[in-house]
Request: fold
Amino acid sequence: MLIYEYKLDGSERHYAAIDEAIRIVQFIRNKCLRLWMDEGGISKNDLQVYCAVLAKEYPFANHLNSQARQAAADRAWSAISHFYDNCKTHKPGKKGYPKFQHDNRSVEYKATGWKLDGKHITFTDGCGIGRLRLVGNKKQKIEAFSLKQIKRVRIVHRADSYSVQFGVQAQRQIVHVSTGKRVGIDVGLKAFYTDSEGSTVENPRHYRKAEKRLNRLHRQLSRKQKTSSNRKKARKRLAKAYLKVQRQREDFARKTASTLV
Reply:
């Protein structure tokens, strides 16, 4: 499955609706986990059926698309099955007992609840997200696929923006032209990699360069009073700093890999 990601350009009303949908996903996931804790012999299908019960019992949960509710239940079952697998294999130490989630940042749609229209995507469920513009350099690529190939649409709330990920069912075909040479690569700590011909690419050390600022942001966060708005702002600044380092690493790895092909 190929993943294409774009930023979402919308208003504060759109973003508030997305946050509400994310909260509903977290609510359903935690309710399914509570059902498993309170009652024995709960299966994956039981959690799927419980989604319909929650939609009738809580009107706000009914606003979310039905397949998105089932995807939220699948998240709970994923944590449960992971715990079961660790117990069956007698994994040493803690087995990863499922915990309630308090920081969910995404909502996942399947085949329904959304419509793709060129450079825009519209979410049609009762959460009221509406129509948003896709921002990115790969819009033409997602338009090249049929709607039947798009198996998943996930909205992700990042530290500095809102993004949408398209999961496309496709087979990537890459034709390699042989050069007649064989080069070995050794990935290390001091150097990013060293090949058998003696060429070396230095490690950029993005985290080390940002460590001083990250430590300062951690100290600022620790000084803020818990549950205060200033603490939320400090946490958001810290998350943005970590996200910047993550993107620098991904960009460097992508550019370096392109030179090896």
